[in-house]
TrEMBL record, chain B:
GO biological process entries: transmembrane transport
CDD domains in the cross-refs: TM_PBP2
Localisation: Cell membrane
GO cellular component: a single term: plasma membrane
Alphabetical UniProt keywords: Cell membrane, Membrane, Transmembrane, Transmembrane helix, Transport
The keyword Methyltransferase belongs to this UniProt entry's keyword annotation: no
Lineage: Bacteria, Bacillati, Bacillota, Bacilli, Bacillales
Protein name per UniProt: Peptide ABC transporter permease
Length: 352, 312
């Protein structure tokens, strides 16, 4: 914390590794969240005990391979797990002091879109093709606040300007197909932010966009966060995106967070073998000559996940204990935690 | 838009002319003449009759006369009912057929869409299974068999409803049920499957994430999108209902256009066949045009004026 505040003074708005101010207030605590899906093939343990918290104005990135449970985690926070087949079997999602997992559907609806909003991956499918942009923008607003059509429209125009869409009052009457992909994602962001939520969950918001548009959208996120102080959970495969806007990073593997820490800690002191592998498997501008090393093997079957560390089969350092017992979490710093037996005192002796 | 309508109008006229021409030549390809029955077996009388109705003229001349009749929409008197002109038959019969057809369509669409939506919302639940079992039965029973069954049960055994004719709303129930069940079952199945697909779409998830009420999500977000495939098959369905009215009218002794049409074919009553065919094809083509307009309204992505060169 201290170190981050010191670093912050040098902040110039460029992508750096500084933290942000006013992060003391915790707005979200996820505790040992477990989600399963019952399918014909059996029960998928999609999320197997995820714990993290989020402060006001902070951006937490969740990274990890496809299928590791990122989307399920975010849907569970949002209260959007389809039940059945899904079920939150354990854990809490404490938002502003209240456990959302114990909420009735009708009570959840009072929070969805108002306090917690979500942005989806594909802007081409996230907007209803048969409704005008204006209606899609204002319907959430009009559901949560008793305001007139005119007031809602004024707010909608304001939001479109905020996300950088010109001619907003004419645009309101248009349909999604009349916008480009990048513009649609801006509209999706405007819809998510129109009720001024405290928490924004963005599930791969830039994956479907081309690189230049990606950069613009990320800048938009930063700008909006500065203006509104919204906390963001950003789900992505793209470590470039993470490097640009995350404050902290959670690395997920097979339904668990296996390492979490500040951006600096994860990028410069990755500790879990999977995190290291992940960082080595993407091209980095600063290490041009280095060979890319994709992580060999595939993640475990979530129908029958192993009792021990799920990375065992692919881990170059795997020990006998790894497959049998799940590693205890080790705190490396105030914010840096890792689940790996290598950090156990006894193992350290073994390798040194 | 106006350009599109004009273009469509010409296509429609062309289609009707084509159907009319086909009917004309098919009709004349069938051996026999309207005066084949006993009373007119005297060859002189027959010749005179043919002369009177201009049936002695060469086929191309008859065809030209016929085209003229189409353009002026005056098909002259019926051969078998000399006191009635074709137009008066149409004026008498068509409103009744139209009533039967419209009620059938309304019943089929409203109940089919409701049933399909409920089934989709209770996917794999009891309502779903019941609705789909009902739909399969509804699709597989031909309307004339259903009609006889309905008459036997509700008019014969239970004596709840009148067995025939078209006089009061009570009389309308059985014919409409017989005619609407098939289309309703098809619409229900189609609505269910397209609703199930729409409900998995991202924009529905997004609507949920906005905290909207489930009723609004279904009605405002899902239904309109789920209706597209239903509107697409409405064209064929209309044609099916239209021919269905002929059968049902006959079974229930409803004095609609169907009765005259079927009689006219049996009797080779050329003017009536011609007149009703042209009238019905024009009507159907116009309904198809309406369906396309509705489709364009439902789906803003479809630009009507861009649909050039499309036929139907
Ligand atoms: N509705 C569902 N029914 C059954 N299984 C599901 C369902 N939704 C998710 N899962 C399973 O949960 C696991 C985690 O899925 P999730 O979508 O969270 O992955 P992800 O990390 O978001 O991956 P990606 O990067 O590809 O989006 C997967 O194994 C998936 O098969
Ligand atoms: S716990 Fe064992 S298998 Fe898992 S990452 Fe650490 S060393 Fe590898
Ligand atoms: Mg995902």
């Amino acid at each position: 914390m201290l170190r981050e505040q010191v670093l912050h003074n040098k902040s110039t708005g460029k992508p750096t590794f500084e933290g942000k101010e006013r992060m003391e207030e915790k707005i979200l605590q996820v505790e040992d969240l477990q989600v399963t899906f019952t399918t014909f093939g059996g029960v998928v343990q999609a999320v197997r005990g995820v714990t993290f918290d989020l402060h006001k104005g902070e951006t937490l990135a969740i990274v990890g391979e496809s299928g590791c449970g990122k989307s399920v985690t975010s849907n569970a926070i949002m209260g959007l797990i389809p039940q059945p087949p899904g079920k939150i079997t354990n854990g809490k999602v404490v938002f502003k002091g209240k456990d959302l997992t114990s909420f009735k559907k009708s009570d959840l609806r009072k929070i969805q879109g108002l306090d917690v909003s979500m942005i989806f991956q594909d802007p081409m499918t996230a907007l209803n093709p048969t409704m005008t942009i204006g209606e899609q923008l204002t319907e959430g607003l009009r559901t949560h606040h008793k305001i007139s059509r005119v007031e809602a429209k004024t707010k909608a125009i304001e939001m479109l300007l905020l996300v950088g869409i010109s001619n907003p009052s004419e645009r309101l009457n248009q349909y999604p197909h009349q916008f480009s992909g990048g513009m649609r994602q801006r509209i999706v962001i405007a819809i998510a932010l129109i009720c001024e939520p405290t928490l924004l969950i963005a599930d791969e918001p830039t994956t479907a966009l081309d690189v230049t548009i990606q950069a613009q959208i990320l800048e938009l996120f930063e700008e909006i966060q500065k203006k509104t102080g919204v906390s963001i959970i950003l789900i992505t495969h793209d470590l470039g995106v993470v490097a640009k806007i995350a404050d902290r990073i959670a690395v997920m593997y097979a339904g668990k967070i296996i390492e979490i820490g500040t951006k600096r800690e994860i990028f410069y002191e990755p500790t879990h073998p999977y995190t290291k592998g992940l960082l080595n498997s993407v091209p980095r501008l600063d290490l041009v000559e280095e060979e890319l090393e994709p992580i060999e093997g595939t993640p475990p079957d979530l129908f029958a996940p192993p009792a021990g560390c799920a990375f065992t089969a692919r881990c170059p350092y795997a020990m006998e204990v790894c497959n049998l017992v799940y590693p205890v979490a080790t705190s490396l710093s105030e914010k840096h935690k890792v689940d790996c037996w290598l950090q156990d005192e006894r193992a350290k002796g073994l390798f040194n | 838009m106006i350009q599109y309508i004009i273009k469509r109008f010409f296509m429609m006229v062309l289609t009707v002319l084509l159907i009319a021409t086909l009917t004309f030549f098919l009709m004349h390809a069938i051996p026999g003449s309207p005066f084949d029955d006993d009373r007119t077996s005297n060859p002189t009388i027959q010749e005179n009759l043919e002369k009177y109705y201009k049936l002695d003229q060469p086929l191309p001349v008859q065809y030209a006369n016929y085209l003229k009749a189409i353009v002026t929409f005056d098909f002259g008197p019926s051969i078998k009912k000399p006191n009635d002109s074709v137009n008066s038959l149409l004026a008498r019969g068509f409103p009744i057929s139209f009533e039967l057809g419209i009620i059938t369509i309304l019943v089929a669409v409203l109940s089919g869409v409701t049933l399909g939506t409920l089934a989709a919302l209770r996917h794999n639940g009891i309502i779903d299974y019941l609705a789909m079992t009902f739909a399969v039965i509804g699709i597989s029973i031909p309307n004339f068999i259903l009609a006889t069954l309905l008459i036997q049960i509700f008019a014969g055994e239970l004596k709840w409803l009148p067995a025939a004719t078209w006089q009061s709303p009570l009389h309308m129930i059985l014919p409409t049920l017989a005619l609407a069940t098939g289309p309703m079952a098809i619409i229900a199945r189609l609505t269910r499957s397209s609703m199930l697909e729409v409900l998995t779409q991202d924009y529905i998830k997004m609507a949920r994430a906005k905290g909207l009420k489930p009723s609004r999500i279904i009605i405002r977000h899902a239904l309109r999108n789920a209706m597209m495939p239903v509107v697409t098959i409405m064209g064929t369905m209309l044609a099916g209902i239209l021919t269905g009215t002929f059968v049902i009218e006959r079974i229930f002794a409803i004095p609609g256009m169907g009765k005259y049409f079927v009689e006219s074919i049996n009797n080779r009553d050329y003017p009536v066949i011609m007149g009703s065919t042209v009238f019905y094809s024009a009507f159907l083509v116009f309904m198809l045009f309406l369906v396309d307009i509705v489709y364009g309204i439902l789906d803003p992505r479809i630009k009507l004026h861009k649909k050039e060169g499309e036929s139907s």
